Each structure stands twice: as C-alpha cells, then as structure tokens.
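Entry:
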Amino acid sequence: MIRKYMAYGIGAALVDTEIKVQDAELERMGVEKGLMTLVDADRQAELLSHLGGHLVTATHASGGSAGNSMIATALFGAPTFMSCKVADDEDGNIYLADLEAAGVTHCLTNGRESGVTGKCLVLISPDAERSMNTNLAISETLSVDQLVPGAIAESEYLYVEGYLVTSPTGRAAAVRAREIAEAEGVKTSLSFSDPGMVQFFREGLEEMLGGGVDLVFCNEAEALGWGQCEDLDSAMEALKQVAKQFVITRGADGALTFDGQALAEIPPHKVLAVDSNGAGDMFAGAFLYALSRGEDFATAGRFASLAAGRVVSQYGPRLPAAQYAALREEFFGN
C-alpha cells in the first residue's frame, strides 16, 4: 500500500532564538547545561535581559523537535504532515510560513486561536552544546483537537515527539495518535527528545509508548537513562522491551541502529561543531527520508549521520533549503 505521507509528526511548535554564551554565564544564570528546561515568559525575559548583544544568525527560526524533523524529511523529498498548535500572532505566522515553504502539510488550515506562540531560548556554549529554555505558551494546550485521523491513516510512520509528555493534553494526543496509527496499520515511532524527559517523566513516556512502538529515536544519555544503567548493552536490552527497532545517536562517536535483527555501528562524520541544536531532529528526519527510499537501517543511519554532522557545523536547527537536495545527491547520487 502506497501512502500519501512518509511521516505524520506531532509535537510542540516553537520559534527559536539562539544566543552564544560562555559556560560561566550559564552558571551565573542558573541554566542547566545541555538540557531542555520549561520556563515561563518572565524567566525567558529575565534571561534575555542578561544576554544583550549575544544574538546570532538564527534570531527567529521555527523550531520544535518534531517540526524540525518533518521539515527535514520533506525537504529531502518525502512528503510529511505536522500536527501542532500556534497562535494567531507574528511568531505563529513565522512558524507556518516555514512549514509551508518546506512543503509540510499541517492541521492549521481552519484558523488559529488568539494567544502566544511557544518560544525556545537556545543558549549555545563554546563546545557547541545547546541549553534550551522553553516557554510552551499555546503549545502546552495542544490536544486531540489538533489530530487529523485521516492523515495519520495515510502515513507510513507516526512520529511522536517525547517533549509532549510534559503537557497532559499533549500526552493524551500522543496516546490517541498512536492508537489511531496502530488501528490503521501505520508504523509508530517516538523520540525520547531529552534526558530530562526520561529522568522526570518516565511514567508519562511509558503511557505514550503503550504496549510498544515500532521505532524509538534517542541519544546515548537518553538510552542509558531509560535503561537506568551505565552500559549501552544493558540500555539496548531495555529499549528492546518497548521498541521493535531503535536508533541511538552518539554525537562525535556516530550512532547505533537496530532493525529488529541486526545492530549496525554508524561512523561519525568529522566536522567542526559549532551548534548541536537540531542535530537529533535532523538525524531522525534524514533517517525517515532514507527509509522512504527503501534503504536499510545501516544506510539510513549513514545518511542521517552525514546530515546531522552538516547541521551542527553551522548555527540554527536546520540547513538552508538548497542544501537538502545537494546533500541527498552527494550521498545517494539522485
């Protein structure tokens, strides 16, 4: 059966502001390095007041984990759909314009509510690590109302962003989306998103995983956190209890992919990393694109590693639009 979309994503819609910082500034502001921390608008304003003059190129870029991945998959050449929630404000306009420019179909064609679109303050330290301070705003109220069951049924994969676990309505939407996908024979995938989600919201993630999904995306820290262990072999055994297949990204050490039978080690692409924001999102988006071509997990992992390495070598969570086709042709030849 040929389906209309390669992937149907659901996640928080955010507009990113990226700022270069020193580690000492993170400590002075009380920001936890390398994690996503939920904050209110006042806390975001407080942080910005400390950081005047630090703005870099991605001053206003649409972000959000699932959105970044769906945009990447679409720009590589496989159609995607996105369920999210933005307000009827300027940031909402920015977010929807970015989705539509990438060719991503979305659920927001029937108007938007008044309110404030979610924002993420991304602090980039000299080692390229990103520390995110997120005010979900209207994204916190994302719910089953934003689901489009017909589009889920027309997708090869459902892609659920783990960050939804922090919102009761978002978590319920993720659970319902998985149930619809399962009923329609759509493969299910979930990204753990952040070590903090695994550490502090484990029960909610278990609810979102249900009886297990087809594919989990995570990084090494998230895998170890899920396994509550200190070695990857034990972590992988824990992942096998909730996913038929998985991908573990390992930064400068490459990645591991498991297709249900074979484990493949994916070598890293050596780059000068300046900004890790969006690396995992790019990996997932590129990986799903490669699967849409019928590639095996090892090949998909190598392509995704190349794409993630390219995005961390520049500022911002995504590549300029023209680079997607060039990267695809560089790796696949078409």
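The longest strand covers residues 14-20.
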